[in-house]
Amino acid sequence: MTSYLLAGGGTAGHVNPMLAMADEIRLRDPQAQIVCVGTAEGLEATLVPARGYELVVIPRIPFPRLRGFISSSRNFAKGWPQAVSTISALIRERDVDVVVGVGGYTAAPAYAAARKAGIPFVIHEANAKPGLANRWGALRTPFVGVTFAGTPLPHAVTVGTPLRKEIESLDIPSQRRQARAHFGLEVNRPVLVVTSGSQGARSINTTIAAAAHDIVAAGYQVLHIVGQNKPESLPSLPGYVALDYCDRMDLALAAANMVVSRAGSATVSELSALGVPAVYVPYPVGNGEQRFNAAGVVKAGGGVLVEDARFTPGWVATTLIPLLRDEAALENMGTHAASVGMRDGTARMMNLIDAALSSA
Asked: Are 146 and 274 part of one and the same domain?
């Protein structure tokens, strides 16, 4: 029986690939032992147990940052040995054969514990601009899978993103009518899907709410997934459907002729794999990884990138609506998106994991 320890998380872009790999391991070997390590604050705290996997929680151990360096260094020096010790004990108790990390606060101590135990570890980096944990870990293992070509990590092999089975196997042409009916949309009328993430991107939500009448007047329906950060008022008109949360994103993507979204790694990967044209509005705060995530598909002609501050009702009127009306342009965008997308990221990552196991 092979024993796997999967570590990391924080965002859906990290947790979902980890769960996709866990599902594939379970499918290939029902007797395999799988334990996940994460934090109580990350999405893994809810998503991992909900999928039926054991989650061992450890405290967040951020690497020291330039801002507040002294205090962050003290916290790191205090928490790091304990985190490594906790995961090392787990590796011994479960007789773990390989560690698989996806980045996040628990990934680096898991890599360190794997080295201490003398077992291989495998990295998956979801973002084009890698995080500190995976940058540290990639210097210490030859088994590094990345979502986007050109990600600056040692030993990087482009594998794409391990996708959820419902996305990996989605057949849009055969499911489009059913998908639109599922959301109460007309089955023969084109659809713009707008998703602003679980938190709800204020700029995307307010712009789409203000421009919804114009989009509908242009012949489109709008499926607007608003998240938690809801605008004060949403339109009430035929052809516009707003959801606080969508638990069937596979059907939402099947319904779409085009998507407007942030440029998180998972979103870019899914849309590219499915050949869905998109307008990407990168999150304007942080280290800018979302702009890098979308760069490849935008360069290939499969998407349009617009800065958050420029995504206004005026931009929708002058740029988005003319694009929606150009069926040939959208079809070409979809073809170009698919040219850089990968549906077999899970299989590619399993090849890396198998190689690591063989190396042991």
From this structure: no
